[in-house]
Write the structure tokens for this entry.
Amino acid sequence: MILMSKQLSSWPRDLAIIALLWSVAMLVGGLWVWLDRDVPPWDPAEHLSFSMNYWWTLSHNSWLSGDTWRSLWALSPKYPPVLYLVAALVHGIVGPGPDRAMLANGLFTLVMLVATYGLGRHIFTPRVGLLAAGLCLLMPRLVQTGLDYQLDYPLTAMTLVSLWCLTVWRDAKGGREWLWMLAFGVSFGLALMTKQSALLFLLVPLAWVSVTTLIRRRWGRGLQLGMGAIATFATPVLSVTQQVNLTIQGDQAQQYSSLIDEA
């Protein structure tokens, strides 16, 4: 009990250290973006265009109108909307601009650092969690990905949050497992709405805990997994996006059919 209280008391101090590391990373990344005058490649430029479209739609229409949200989901039928919504929020606070959109990656950096620290703290010790969070800022490939405006960086952050919640849920007791499974369901849903390939990274851990739960006949845990699945897929964004995609594909098919008939 004393050891647990000491570990819990280290959270504020360790979060302050993470905030300091994140501030330094933001300063270095901001300096790099300011010095970099190259034209964005095709993929980052496309994502920047989507984020600007989201910002324009949200800032020039009523949020209470159903037409606004239907047009919002139709803006990027190829990609899920989480990155663009976060970037639209950034545009609304600091103003529009391609360099300012990179601040969205800064927010995902903070999410990734906290999730990495929490995962390392839970599996090992708080010191290992801090070390893992610091190493995230020193990995060359991860740093390079964070300086590009693409879906891979926020996908990494949201996948880490989901893995953290799932790992803590596996070991949680005393009623806390329901909260951690709910957190996993929400974070996993957001990860899927960041990029659908999040399923590939979490498929093995999900299969592992599911099979283990069935073998050990822990039916209460099975109910929690079911609640997590509901929390993951109950978000209306997934269904609305799918409906919009089907509508767009149907309209395109009708246009192609009419062109063929005319020919």
